[in-house]
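User: Please predict the structure of the protein below. I'd like the answer in structure-token form so I can feed it into my own downstream comparison script.

Assistant: Understood. Taking the following sequence of 337 residues as input:
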Amino acid sequence: MSTSNNIADTIQNTINGKIKPLGSLGKIEQLAAQIATLQLTPSSENSLSILNPTLLVFAGDHGIAKHNISIAPRDVTTLMVSCFLSGQAAINSFIKSTNWQLKVVDCGIQTQLPTHNKLINARLGNVCGDISVEPALTETQFDEARLHSEKLLQQLDTNLIAFGEMGIGNTSPASAIFAKLFKLPVENVVGHGTGIDQQQFNNKHLLISKAVNRVDSDQPLEILRQLGSFEIATMTFTMLEASKHNKLILVDGFIVTSAAAIALAIKPSIRTNLVFAHKSNESAHGQMLEKLAVEPLLDLSLRLGEGTGAALCLGLIEAAVNFYNEMASFEDLGISL
């Protein structure tokens, strides 16, 4: 029997041996097993840990947003990043009194902000390309996104990274990626985002159709470069880099899931690292989760972004770790079933 099989057996036996009916803790048991698979080795103790849980909000502006397909103008991205840094946004209230450490990754917003201890500079420009007529990233920017992700991981002393995002117009590249990656009709994947009217929706549908039809390649990396964005590309490469170091990756909503979908297409084994936080109220997100054959931890009808759904899952992850480490077993109590 291989070493990996031995470890898997140890993990499952530990979970099954706890003082409870088999499978009675449902997703918490699955979560504990997933974390254990990442953290345990033949030479390690049979215990789990969460070290400095870090929530990264990746921000970027989008060329396609100039076509009035969002409820807010593009400069709201910079405004919201400022709010994250000053502690005034939804995500700040969600992580208050938790162990989350928040960092904002500027992948390329219109206005570069002053240095801040919570701000990571991973800028690729002021705004990505308008995907309806051109690639989101140049070849050079794409290579820089990869390098930024490597440097970013070197800065983080954590084994749990939650991914959130901010960028006016970013449901458009996420929809385009989904349609192209899974060869779906655009009308099946385009939603109303944060609440656009019918005229804006029709225009959004047209622009995304133009974007998808413009791209001939079915290669995941080229789909990402052509149809993604500064923050989606950087998230994808950061996920891939995090997986090399056995980190647990917590995926927020629709936009982050589009990055995860590309990462999975590039490296299927990254599935072991990915935990999907919640099912967004964005219409296509449920479809995307089904295509990826994953089940999220929560379904709260959220559609804000910012990592808000992911933030709410820390308690569940900590519960899974504590259950694995601290709950007594039948053997501990001298009970034989």
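That's the full token string. The longest strand covers residues 101-108.
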